[in-house]
Amino acid sequence: MVDPKSPFKWRHFQPDIILLNVRWYCRYSLSYRDLEEMMVERGVKVDHTTIHRWVRNYAPELDKRIRSFLNPTNDSWRVDETYIEVKGEWKYLYRAVDSEGNTLDFMLSAKRDGKAAARFFRKVLGAKHTQTPRVITVDKNAAYPVAVDELKQDKTLKAETELRQSKYLNNIIEQDHRNVKRIVKPTMGFRSFNTARRTLRGIEAMAMIRKGQVKGIN
Fold first, then answer.
1. Which of 81, 116, 118, 189 is 20 to 30 A from 138 in CA distance terms?
2. Residue 13 has pLDDT above 90, yes or no
3. If you ran DSSP here, which 8-state letter would residue 218 be given?
4. What torsion, rounded to 10 degrees, do the Cα atoms 148, 150, 153, 157 define?
5. What is the Cα–Cα distance from 172 to 170, expressed in whole angstroms?
6. Residue range 36-71, pLDDT digits in tens
7. Are 55 and 26 in contact (CB under 8 A)?
8. Which of 51, 109, 40 is nearest to 79 (CA)?
9. Which CATH homologous superfamily contains domain 73-190?
């Protein structure tokens, strides 16, 4: 009997098949058609458009379910943004890691300005596995000092928090961007902002699992 609270209710495929496809898509550089062919080889006939719907629906669940099990991160932040194509236009994926490369948080934004940066900082600070930063390392983007000043004025950030603008010291997050870009590449750009946002949640969740940030998963 199907659990009425199950997120897989009314699905025509077993939950393990759905989760396998969602996990593989969010972890490896695969297209939906790649997964369709891989499933056929395993005796499972599923259309690539169905797999797309699975990812769109369940990728956010991966992020949601691991949040309460994330190991604490340290107080040295590395913050940067990278470009994500949505409907033929570039959008901005804000990302932050600590000095050991552990993911703090991420946020897809239509704009790249002080307001977007401040909104992202608030999101990172609101995560249960993060702590108030001792130092925030960013590149030369002028939006970051504006955002930090705003957060210090309303006491969201401590006055002693150091903002350090150094491209060299920020190499750790620029390298971390590569994993996201590698996985996103087969999509040839997302068709909608909401699809991009939901899919990226799954990609980032799988990256945190891969990094060993989730308690009980090595």
1. 189
2. no
3. -
4. -40
5. 5
6. 999 999 999 999 999 999 999 999 999 999 999 999
7. yes
8. 109
9. Ribonuclease H-like superfamily/Ribonuclease H (3.30.420.10)
Length of the chain: 218
pLDDT band for position 7 (cuts 50, 70, 90) = low
User: What tokens were used for 154?
Assistant: 């309303």
Residues 80-92: b if buried by 16+ CB within 10 A, e if exposed? bbbebebeeeebb
Q: Is 190 left (phi over 0), alpha (psi -120 to 50) or beta?
A: beta
Beta strands in 110-158 (DSSP E): 135-138
Supply the pLDDT for residue 188.
81
**Side chain identity at residue 46, one-letter code:** V
Q: pLDDT category, 4, cuts 50, 70, 90?
A: very low
Q: What letter represents residue 101's amino acid?
A: G
Cα separation of 118 and 107, whole Å? Answer: 11
Beta strand 135-138 with 162-165: parallel, antiparallel or unpaired? parallel
Domain boundaries, the chain: 73-190
Q: Which amino acid is at 208?
A: M
pLDDT per position as a tens digit, 108-133: 999 999 999 999 999 999 999 999 99
Helices (H) and strands (E) in the chain, counts: 7, 5
Q: Which residues contact 64 (CB under 8 A, 6 or more apart)?
A: none
